[in-house]
Design a protein that fits this description.
441 residues, alpha/beta, Alpha-Beta Plaits, 3-methyladenine DNA Glycosylase II, Chain A, domain 3, four-stranded parallel β-sheet, three-stranded parallel β-sheet, 16 helices, 37% helix
């Protein structure tokens, strides 16, 4: 298997070579070379920002088709909490969940149900005196944020909450339940996640902190949405009682939902990749001394802002709040203590994709070269060279991936110097008369 699986891909035929994606990438994983974008797979965290800003739709998401469930004898749908915010006038979650079964699923297990269990375990863990994770604890729920910390903020890895994400727990509990009720072998039971974002696709296909995810396929919300709308109309008066989560679990889909469920007022919640980076930088600088918990979402407004959703994220957030207004606070509570199945199976480790050289000495030497070269550039960070900043361009030159002449200002200065030199030479060559001042004008 490739060391780096990515759910975000590039359609080179559609790419026009603009620099929208280059300027927005939080890990500087994109360059424009020879008129086409190029994704540096080692740096990409699949946050989906490039998909969001690309005016030519050249960035695509690799996800599974709904037909992927047909490979399994028993099919389980795992709807993300963000799915509830995609529909107008949804007053009863059972309408949506029954419609999912009409698509061909044998069982629906809400990810919001597992989210309530994770929240319950988090509360137990935060109160455990033997819990050694330094404060503030950072949520692992957003896989794009975890990958961002892994490549850009390694000093914060020890702060990550060592619990599996709700979708992995949902798949684990749903499969166990299906096997117990039907006797069908586990390898014939398939769990299909209905996802709001590409980062969650990557988290399933190549998980961090787990040996293997229990989820078998990931389908985009945008793919199932049209079919669900028509099925929801059919089941308006014939719904099954399938809802097993309350306000706490469903509101995980919006920014601050997970943090509020810790029942601890000493928390911070931030959404949007730029705001997330600012918070992480401040955490590195130890500016937050009085916080216990930090929830970070790469997408604006939370998971409802994922690029695989169909509704405006802020409208979806309002719909979520309206839907859960009269729901019970929570329908799921974990037993006292921290069940082992909730814990990550291994630590999330630093991925040194940002370093310049293969070892410390070569990195320091190349860093000095970068600093010197960066001074020679204009400092405007215009992106015309195809790199996100002048410093990034200097790194590319030092690594041998680009040249100084990729900078239009360097070329301009060189052409100007050549013109000045030709002007001087024209005075020295016999038979040539220097131009008069009025001719120059």
């Amino acid at each position: 298997m490739d060391r780096f699986f990515h759910s975000v891909s590039l359609d080179k035929d559609a790419c026009k070579g603009c620099t929208h994606c280059v300027k927005r990438c939080p890990t500087e994983a994109i360059r424009v070379r020879d008129g086409k974008a190029r994704i540096i797979k080692e740096r990409c965290i699949d946050c989906g920002e490039c998909i969001r800003v690309c005016p030519h739709h050249a960035k695509k998401v690799i996800s599974d088709p709904l037909s992927a469930m047909d490979k399994f004898r028993y099919k389980i749908a795992l709807p993300a909490p963000a799915l509830y915010g995609q529909f107008n006038n949804l007053e009863d979650p059972d309408i949506l969940l029954t419609a999912l079964k009409k698509l061909g699923f044998d069982m629906v297990y809400e990810v919001s149900q597992a989210a309530e269990l994770v929240s319950s375990v988090t509360r137990h863990l935060m109160k455990d005196p033997s819990f050694e994770v330094p404060r503030p604890v950072i949520s692992c729920a957003c896989p794009a944020v975890v990958r961002l910390i892994r490549v850009r903020f390694p000093s914060l890895l020890d702060h990550l909450l060592p619990l599996q994400a709700p979708v992995d727990m949902a798949a684990y509990f749903a499969k166990a339940k299906a096997h117990a009720e039907t006797g069908i072998p586990m390898d014939e039971i398939g769990a299909v996640f209905i996802s709001p974002c590409p980062a969650k696709v990557t988290a399933i296909k190549m998980p961090l902190g787990l040996e293997k995810s229990q989820v078998d396929a990931v389908v985009a919300i945008s793919e199932v949405y049209p079919s669900l709308v028509s099925r929801m109309k059919e089941v308006q008066n014939s719904t099954e009682e399938l809802t097993n989560s309350g306000r706490t679990g469903i509101r995980w889909s919006t920014s601050g939902g997970e943090a509020a469920a810790t029942l601890n007022e000493r928390y911070l919640a931030a959404d949007g990749i730029e705001n997330v980076i600012k918070v992480l930088e401040d955490l590195e600088d130890e500016k937050f001394q009085d916080l216990d918990f930090v929830e970070l979402n790469a997408c604006s407004a939370g998971c409802v802002g994922g690029v695989l959703t169909v509704e405006n994220p802020y409208i979806a957030e309002a719909k979520i709040k309206q839907l859960t207004k009269y729901q019970p606070v929570s329908r799921n509570h974990a037993p006292a203590g921290v069940p082992e199945e909730h814990l990550l199976q291994k630590a999330v480790e630093y991925e040194p994709v940002m370093r310049l050289g293969e070892d410390f000495q070569s990195s320091m030497k190349m860093m000095a070269e970068v600093e010197e070269l960066a001074k020679q550039f204009c400092g405007l960070d215009c992106g015309s060279c195809g790199a996100p900043s002048c410093r990034a361009q200097a790194e590319d030159v030092v690594k041998g991936f680009s040249t100084r002449e990729a900078c239009i200002f360097v070329v301009r200065d060189q052409l100007q110097a050549m013109a000045n030199e030709i002007e001087k030479l024209s005075h020295l060559l016999p038979g040539l008369t220097p131009r008069k001042e009025e001719d120059k004008k």
